[in-house]
Request: fold
Amino acid sequence: MKIIKKSKEINLLFKNIKKSGFVPTMGSLHKGHEYLIKKSITENKITVVSIFLNPKQFNNKNDLKKYPKKINDDIRICKKLKVNYLFIPSFNEIYSWKSKKRKYPKINKIMEHKYRKGHFKGVLQVIEKLTDIVPSSKMYLGEKDFQQFKIIKDFIFLNKINTKIINCKTIRDSSGLALSSRNQLLSKANKKKAVLMINFVKKIKKKKSKYKNILKDIKENFKKNKIKYDYIENINLKTFKITDKINNQSRLFFAFYLGKVRLIDNI
Reply:
C-alpha cells in the first residue's frame, strides 16, 4: 500500500488508471468502512481510500473537535485489507486544488439539510474537489448516511461526472446498532439506550401499517426515555419527499441525541 499526501501526485497517477474504486472517508474507520473497502477491492483492480476530516461540513465546532481521530489505526486497517493507495491530504491540499466549476443539485429542506445548516454545502465542496483529484470509475458510499448518498449521486449525475456511485447496505453490530465513528463516544448506558431505541423502531414498523400510529408510538417512546430528537420522517426513496405511506419504497429516518452524541439512522 502506498500512502499519498499530495493532490497533484494522486491526480497524475489516477489519470492513467481506467478502472478504480474510491472510498472517501473522514477516518476513524470501523467495520462499516471495511465493508465498503472490501467491496471495492472485489470489484476493482485498484482501490483508493481517502482520509480527510472535512471541517466545512461540520456546523458545530465542538462536534468537529470531538470527532474521533485514529490515523495510525486507520493506516493499519487499510494495510491489512490490502488497499492500493491511501490518500491523506491536508486542508490546503484539498481546498487549494483548482477544480472544474460544478453545479450543485437542489436539496429538499428536510432532515439533515434542515437541522445542520451548511452541512451539505460542505459535503459537496469536498466531493467536488475529490472527484476532480481522484477521477475514479466507482465511488462507494454507505446507506446509513442515505441523504448524503442521494445528494452526492445527484451531484455526480447533474455534472455528468464519469463515476458510478455504488450504494452499500448499512452495517450493524450484533445488537442492531448501525456502525458509526461516533458510537465510540457513547457511554455504555447510552449505547444500550440507543440499541433499545433502534430495535423499538424496527419492531413498531413491522407491527403497524399506519404512519400516524408509528410516528406517535416512536415519539412517545423517545419522550418516555428522555431522548431528544431532531426529526423522525418517513421518506419516499424515489421522490425523496416526506410521505405517509409505509411500503417498500419508503424508509423511516431519524436523528436523536444521547448525551451530547448525535446519531442518525434509517430503517
User: Anything to note?
Assistant: Residues 188-207 form the longest helix (20 residues).
